[in-house]
Amino acid sequence: MQIITTYVKISILYVKGEIYLQNKSVKIIAQNKKAYHDYFVLEKYEAGIALYGTEVKSVRLGQVNLKDSFCKIYNGELYALGIHISPYEKGNIFNKDALREKKLLMHKKEIMRLNGNVARDGYSLIPLSLYFSGSKVKAEIGLCKGKKLYDKRDSDAKKSAERTIERTMKGQRDEI
Predict the structure, then answer these.
(1) Domain presence at residue 20
(2) What is the 3-state secondary structure (H, E, C) of 104-124?
(3) What gap in Å lies between CA 6 and CA 28, rounded to an integer?
(4) pTM surpassing 0.85?
């Protein structure tokens, strides 16, 4: 298993007409690349995630899998299902079930708006990535619409065309 870490430095935050300087580093833990293949991502939201201590330690080690995960809204609360966080090796009796429902923390208004979109328009809520923002674990949730098979073929064709163009451009640059 390969752990990929990416650091992004955030310096300016613009909230309600005011600018705040912020020096938090964001460390990406896991990404759901399959979601980008299977869905059109229309909007992205940030949500906190409620975890136990041994789960956080396991997340710090990068033992997270977002494949086949999705979100549901129960009684006005948002839950992520299918996020696999491996049990912490040294956690003994304090370890929780690897596939338990994890509560996502968002504002009530945002959850109700998402609930309306999911119920009315047939969209899905899919976790796109997990990352550390400072010392807190955050989840990036996408409001997604499913792709048809021909959409997947089109996007694969576009990606391969872009790769071939990049290769040829790189070859031309090396010759000069």
Answers:
(1) no
(2) EECCHHHHHHHHHHHHHHCCE
(3) 5
(4) no
- The tokens describing 154, both together, are 């089109």
Question: Tokens 């005011």 — which residue?
Answer: 18
Looking at per-residue pLDDT, the higher value among 123 and 24 belongs to: 123
Look at residue 23 in the predicted model and tell me its pLDDT: 55
156 assigned to some structural domain? no
Query: Which domain does 65 fall in, by range?
Result: 31-150
- If you ran DSSP here, which 8-state letter would residue 61 be given? T
Indicate whether 10 pLDDT > 70.
no
Q: Which residue do the tokens 């992004």 mark?
A: 8
Q: Within 10 A of 159 (CB to CB), how many other CB atoms are there?
A: 11
CATH code, domain with 51: 2.40.280.10
- Is residue 21 domain-resident? no
* Residue 85 and residue 97 in contact, taking contact as beta carbons nearer than 8 Å: no
> Quick check: is 124 in a domain?
yes
Give the tens place of pLDDT for each residue, 23-62.
566 788 888 888 887 888 888 888 888 888 878 888 888 8
CA–CA dist 96, 2 (Å, integer)? 24
